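Researcher: First entry.
Model:
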Amino acid sequence: MENPAPVIGLDGRRHEARCSGFPGSDPRFSFWTRRGSVRKLLVYFEGGGACWDGQSCSFPRVGLPPEVPQFFDTQVPPGTDPARMDGLLRTNHPSNPVRDWDMVYIPYCTGDVHIGSASRSYTSVANPFVGLAAGQTLNIQHRGYDNFMVVLDWIRRQVRAPHQVLVAGSSAGGYGAAVNAHWIGMLYPGAQMHVLADSAQGVLPAAFDTSLPGRRSWNPQIAPWVFGPNAAAAPSGDLIRRAARSDPFGRYAQITPHVDPVQIGFYAAMAGGYGAGSCPARPEVEWHNRMSSELQGRAASQRNFRYYVAAGPFHMLLTDPRFYAEQSGGQTVASWVGDLLAGRLRGPAYEAQSNGLGHGQGGHWSNQACPGCLANWACPAP
């Protein structure tokens, strides 16, 4: 649906859909839908980087040479068509566990991981590749949350009440899925909920989440009744665990490679301004060790959370052909997602949590990791 009208959202506020407004970009917002043959719903949040200050917002992703920094998508790219995408969106693949579901595809063009509701002015740095002079004012619309509320209003009016819901996203979309899924759960309280974040590990400097400029640039809409007091400052890496804790009958999961050049690149870019970790000269070491520790900690503390760690390096699996071929974690990702959706949690403790919609039935959905991929790396001596 192209350029949808403003709505009063499920939160009771007025929302208007728009993209970033970066100079020369198309500010119009669109989203895509597909009718399935079963009463099940996939809501997918697209990825596409982030921007939060004059430096990052001066370097959009517009097909620049690889040596040029590129931080965020400024518009819905012309020719976007989820029907031609692969992985979870490929409806003619026999191993796709959601091939016959209703689908809603939410593009990303606001630089705020789908959680922002703000208009910000930044002072640019020079970017000759896009004709941007140093000192130019950039008025950026961080309206990812507003866009989601507009899409959610369409879902509310058009989608028959599903028995199952999968809220998924890749990269920036993984954060959008984790933070916004509860609204879809509120819309369909009788549905069996699943949340899946791909390549969105949340390994960021702690100061980024509390700083302006930083995550506060977006006026992040992070619900305190789901994510706890002072939710707007909650660590990015802890958001999905908190969401899982608030929804004990839902199932929450993350997929990540053990080496992800994109996630490592964003961590390194942020570390310069917000503080590096224990291995400042080697951001890949710091990112990997935190990824491993935090994933295992989430799985240990939340029994409705699981992870799949694949052998990297790469970025994003859910809309890639590797969704059906990658099995370094012990089974294909497609099969593992199928287990997630089938509700095959292990042990009698889960059966006691059953809500009559398949929770806790049987036992195959388990944590998966490529051999040695969760082992800590040593930080080289300076």
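Researcher: Second entry.
Model:
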Amino acid sequence: MVGGTDQVSDTFAAPVAFVEVSTASGTEACSGTLISPTVVMTAAHCVYDTSPSGNLLGIADPSDISVRVGSPTVSDDALASRAGVVAVLPQPRYRWNATSHIHDIALLALDRPLLQTPATLADRPPDEGKSLLMAGYGRTSADDGERPGALRVGLIEAATPASCRLVSQSFDPSWLFCGAAAATNTAEPGGTACYGDSGGPAFAFENADRNVVVEGVISYVSRTDCASARSYLVLVASERGFIDRALATSPPMWRHLRDDPPTATIRPVRLRVGQAGVVALRINDDRSRRARVDIAFFTHGGKRIASAYRGVATNRWVRFTLLRQMQRFNGYVCAQGTDGTRKPSNMACASDIVE
């Protein structure tokens, strides 16, 4: 949080979660909110591995995620309740297109109930000008390389959809709102979300002492320089259908509510220059064995080498004839599938296709 303050009341600090995700490249940190004794709400991009081109490569294993709830500082284990995660549920409509996160919200089922009082979920969007208190464990500036430390809060005011779209063209008011840092007042100083605050809450500022209402989930900021950016948040009220359905479902059954990206696997087949060749491709999709996907083929450098195939069956091997190649290229054929909700698979490549 850029600006704001680390002087956080126990009421607001109690349901805020520090979320750690172990990855192959290290540990990533996000923020979140306890919304039931056993469920934490965070941002979907915190639990997905994505490629620079926008592919959703997979969801983190629950065993790689841990949370601490109610801690004013993450450096002191004694000041928080720690829990493991047994199930992960991103919003099924979550997308990442290499520039924008869409329906950027996810739920984490904990391995035990926590004693902190969960936040209440908003049932309507905040009105223009409403004061909201964002909370998170993120950086205090874009250049801040320190590990997460103190919980910070910052006051924002909900902005008009027109002004939100003016700053961020990908803004969609059906599930997003934005806020500008409120002018410093005697109650709370204004703040802007920054890296590591993702998934953190925006609370209604007029909360009663024993009832904190979470109205937004921090998704992104409009500029890389957090200090001069606007904060963009997922509307909790717009996601209540997804959230309420998940809270009414046993976490072991959450897998039936998910929509994981399809996965592509290709078998290498040798292809001589000037001859048509054949490759075998399999697109696995967990939604249905009768699902259909669209497929495109490329060279490793991204040049399309075949017409797009539409309505291809999933969960079985399918053979494809490629266009004749009249000159050598770098020896790779790559394929990518896209499901019915336009969620892309990984890019699967086979080497030594052209001799």
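Model: Note on the second entry: The mean pLDDT is 85.
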